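retry 2 of 3: previous attempt timed out while embedding magnesium ion. Reduced batch size to 1 and resubmitted. Inputs unchanged:
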Amino acid sequence: MKLSRLGEFGLIERVRRRTVQGRGVNLGIGDDAAWVQTRSGSCLLTTDLLIEGVHFDLKWISLYALGHKTLAVNMSDIAAMGGKPAYLLLSLGIPSTFESEDVEKYYRGIRSLALKSGVALVGGDTSVAKSLFISACLIGHAPYRPITRGGAQVGDDIYVTGTLGDSALALKLLRGKSLQFRKPAARFLLSRHHFPTARLRVGATLARNKLARAMIDVSDGLLQDLGHICRASRIGAILVEEKLPLSAAYRSLAGHEGTGYALSGGEDYELLFCARRRDRSEIEKLEKGVGVPITRIGTCVPSRDGITVLDSKGRSLSFRGTGHDHFRGPVRTP
Ligand code: ADP
Ligand code: MG
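retry 2 succeeded.
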């Protein structure tokens, strides 16, 4: 079958079904990170690719920011399990036209975030390539039981950290060669696109206090990543459009896009999680403690109801796309 029909997630599901779970594998393919048991404890493993022309364009991102982002997006997957990042393996395919100073700039970006986050670069691989190709593998500790995508139940609340859509809107402005970047609002969006924040503290606190029953980081668009929680937990979801957390910058520049990028844009790297209704006050307390907005945006419902977004009049919204699939492009709803 053509991959454009099967899609990225169809392909991963085929690989998963044919994979034999090895010894010590608590959680294999299908979550934000794998969770394995070693003799000395348990750890989390995640990997991400960043390919020039697919994930980034060097016209729009500096090598320093790209280094920073490489580590941040991997840390986000560890955050989504409630873990603590520790060791990084970094493999680069580099065009021979690059200067060594370019590579040094990239590593400065990696180092700046690694130092702040207690991550050690411990190895990798290097090759020549036609365009810049980055493969990072991050290993983390799991001091608390990791939070999977699969534990949400009907009646649970749905929350998201931070604000949504900033990164995707920045990309749209960049692609449109917008002159808006002189405005502070556009610069804010751009910083969210170039320097995403992995919500490590929120993730770990939720895991420590056993507050989140299911969690994922929003990397491919809210609706698509919520879809992963719904499939893994066998539930549906109702979201309230008005509750979606939007930054002031997003509100001022989104125009006719409305909440489109907040629902379906990628690269937010915020945490989306489900928690029991009775834990509402605990989550409010946690929000104050961690200093990151945590917004209740919906409710888990039976799986037969699918995913619905309600507008301010209580009507169900039809959306053009739900997120990104590497082989299908933007995912369209039927
Ligand atoms: P995320 O967006 O959180 O990085 P992905 O959607 O990329 O997660 O991947 C979903 C799951 O599929 C993860 O557990 C990942 O490790 C696994 N996965 C992705 N691609 C492959 C592959 N080529 N072979 C095996 N597992 C894969
Ligand atoms: Mg993820």
